[in-house]
Write a structure and sequence with these properties.
Elements lengths: L13 H14 L4 H6 L5 H9 L7 H14 L3 H13 L4 H9 L6 H15 L6 H9 L4 H24 L13
């Protein structure tokens, strides 16, 4: 298999150099997975536009989606990154592990979101009807459902990029689920 390298700022297009500069200011670095997107002159900008788009979901809800999709897709890179981000958003280590395991007993609304997102991801969009109804019963709307699907797609993109490139994980290691 061809090895993917993470390009340096000097090895990418001028547009991607600007994005690298912005990422360094905001995140403190250019995460390796974002760096590898810069092999394309357009992918990094397109992905950042998707990732930073408006949504009806709160930051914690987006991290729930990021964690469970990455768990289902077995993406250690995204699990590592989103564990760190989930902690910044107020989740505890135990809550993060529970989310990755497919539930959130500490919050009924989050539990409905975790379970539905897991079903969407495992079943390629054909989620269990009872989980869709539980999602609505928990207070989510049809608009929220569409935003969940967009977030699942967002995270699936990076999960697949990691699976194909196997770039080095530059986030703190996370435990495997037992």
């Amino acid at each position: 298999m061809k090895t993917f390298t993470v390009p340096t700022r000097d090895q990418v297009s001028a547009e991607n150099q600007n994005l690298f500069d912005t990422l360094t200011k905001v995140v403190g670095k250019v995460p390796n997975l974002y760096g590898v997107l810069a092999h394309s002159d357009h992918a990094l900008a397109n992905y950042l536009t998707l990732q930073n788009g408006k949504t009806s979901l709160r930051a914690k809800e987006r991290e729930i989606i990021n964690l469970i999709v990455s768990q289902v897709n077995d993406c250690i890179y995204c699990l590592s990154a989103h564990t760190a981000i989930a902690k910044m958003n107020g989740f505890t280590d135990d809550q993060i592990l529970e989310i990755r395991g497919g539930s959130a007993s500490f919050d009924a609304k989050f539990d409905a979101l975790v379970k539905l997102t897991k079903s969407i991801t495992e079943n390629k969009g054909h989620a269990d009807e009872a989980l869709i109804e539980a999602f609505y019963a928990a207070g989510y709307t049809q608009g929220n459902l569409i935003d969940v699907v967009i977030a699942v797609g967002d995270k699936t993109i990076t999960n697949y990029v990691f699976a194909l490139t196997k770039v080095p994980v530059d986030w703190p290691a996370v435990p495997e689920l037992v």
